[in-house]
Amino acid sequence: MAQPEKKAGLLKRTSSSKKPLKEKVLLMYEQIFTKEDPSKSNPRFWDELFLMKVNLEYLEGKLESLDGDEVMKVKDNINSLFQHCVQALAEEHQIRVVNALQTLCALFRGVHQKNRSATGFDIINMLMGFDKAELRMKELMESLDALLCGDGSQSLKSLCLKLLLCLVTVTDNISQNTILEYVMINSIFEAILQILSDVSSRAQHGYDAVVLLALLVNYRKYESVNPYIVKLSIVDDEPTLDGMGMVIHHALTEYNRQYRDKEEENQGGFFSTLTSMVGSMFIADADEKLSVQTNEAILLALYEAVHLNRNFITVLAQSHPEMDMAAAPAVPVPSSPATPLGTTPPSLDLMNNPELPLDPNLQTSNLLITFLKYSSIVMQDTKDEHRLNSARLCLIILTCIAEDQYADAFLHDDNMNFRVNLHRMPMRHRKKAVDKNIPSRPLVCAVLDLMVEFIITHMMKEFPMDLYVRCIQIIHKLICYQKKCRVRMHYTWRELWSALINLLKFLLSNETILLSKHNIFQLALQVVNLFNMFITYGDTFLPTPSSYDELYYEIIRMHQVFDNLYCMVLRVSTNAGPWKEPASKVTHALVNVRAIINHFNPKIESYAAVNHISQLSEDQVLEVVRSNYDTLTLKLQDALDQFERYSEQPREAGFFKELVRSISLNVRKNVSLSTMSQDVLLKEFSSIS
């Protein structure tokens, strides 16, 4: 009887102890962080370690707690840990592979976190030893490549991609991550392409693969030859390019769907009733509620594909029946509040999405339509820095598209008509458009609609000058194509002319405030030259002669705006100052607009006097215009149909560096929050074992 009492006493003392027993893996970690080689006292140390469930929090915390000097004292053991992690990746025992991948992730993050000021070479030395780094990274990249391309577990492939995303984003500035030199040398480009070209792997890993590729393309892209840029630019395999397009398409579609759901939520219930009672005073609040986190990572991937690979342009127009968009992954993807909208694969809700099937034959969509809808959402509110960056990137992508000959051909193709329901900002002076009234038109009409929408909704104190310049440039490039190919688009041009005139009116009304921050004459010149394009070449691309008459009518009707603009630029150009030369250019550009006003106004006044009419109707003014074209003299202006082609370097380099930094931070946060589903993984592989 004495023996059981002794056991009970021992148990009691243990349970009341202030120092509970540590789990074995923590004791093993502590051995690694001593100067002694842990395998000396236990030859099976490394074999046993990778059978233990990784304690990511403890391992990262321990590494972060060591400064550079302390790390160097245990450098040999950390190098050994890294080496054995890499070796474990080649083992058949799946549990070891899972634990090795997670341990590597903790190593990369932990060492970088504490030693942010250290050079890349020091980090490499701490992790794997500089003399062995090339061999270790070669082995690591080969193992990851084999796991990604093999027939193994999908969870394991997901973990490999998470590790690579972790490795790529450990530094704020991706180009300062010296370890990536080894990722350049030991390319995994083909493995990424294989994931994108395969339907099953694309559904589960496509998003991570596309984001990883976009980040790798931006590693030291301005300083050295990046093999990922070179390889991406020459991909011509149709299934691969289509796969990449589908991943981007799905991510943007999911964002659009979730935004639309939020919009519908806010249109019902008490909030909607209150808004209708009090008027439009709560419109801004409603808009803020609809502000959702943007997805710059997927936009960057789209930009790099469009910018670098001319073959990808065909993917933009690749039709996808709406039902195809519902391809959901076989393994459910856990979502969390921290996951940005649009970062998860589309759900099966898309099967029931009523947005596109507007006819009995189920209307198809394509990547460009989805992108235009996405752009119409993010471009509504540019006050937030992320949304401003997204809007800018959307316009850069549209710039690349607008100056591509093949893209222009399908944008203007009269046999490719779509109903594109763009999202419009709530405004007091207009009603919400009814979706069913949207006509089926060539896609260029949707691009122009998006540009017009942006022009009329962003005239504010915090004036986004850069976005306006890009917007006008896109319109100009599209019109240059129409003039060159004599494409007559049946578009409501009057809406564009009205928006442009109102923009000039806004610049005039806010001259003092805007001139303190911006060169408004550059934008004014662009707008005036758009009118000059219509005046000089309109007969080659406007749909009918009456459209040309309407152009003159709008210029004459709004002549006061052009008169005021001329007075302003004449005043600035005749005085010494920084704006003298740019203002002078606008003065010269206005010559034909003023000639039209000065030619027709006296004739309209004369017609009114002779016919005793105090105010002429539009038809009467048009009658005067038509009967007096012959006596109008205009000057031929040079280079109206010429434009500078888009170039990323050097003008956009600063923007992309900051954008990639922001994306990298966001990806790092999301990879960290995911904790890579340890319990799920271990349960899966325990059952296999």
UniProtKB/TrEMBL annotation:
<dbReference type="Pfam" id="PF08427">
    <property type="entry name" value="ARMH3_C"/>
</dbReference>
<dbReference type="InterPro" id="IPR016024">
    <property type="entry name" value="ARM-type_fold"/>
</dbReference>
<dbReference type="GO" id="GO:0005829">
    <property type="term" value="C:cytosol"/>
</dbReference>
<keyword id="KW-1133">Transmembrane helix</keyword>
<feature type="domain" description="Armadillo-like helical">
    <location>
        <begin position="435"/>
        <end position="671"/>
    </location>
</feature>
<feature type="coiled-coil region">
    <location>
        <begin position="622"/>
        <end position="649"/>
    </location>
</feature>
<dbReference type="GO" id="GO:0016020">
    <property type="term" value="C:membrane"/>
</dbReference>
<protein>
    <submittedName>
        <fullName>Armadillo-like helical domain-containing protein 3</fullName>
    </submittedName>
</protein>
<dbReference type="InterPro" id="IPR013636">
    <property type="entry name" value="ARMH3_C"/>
</dbReference>
<keyword id="KW-0175">Coiled coil</keyword>
<keyword id="KW-0472">Membrane</keyword>
<dbReference type="InterPro" id="IPR039868">
    <property type="entry name" value="ARMD3-like"/>
</dbReference>
<keyword id="KW-0812">Transmembrane</keyword>
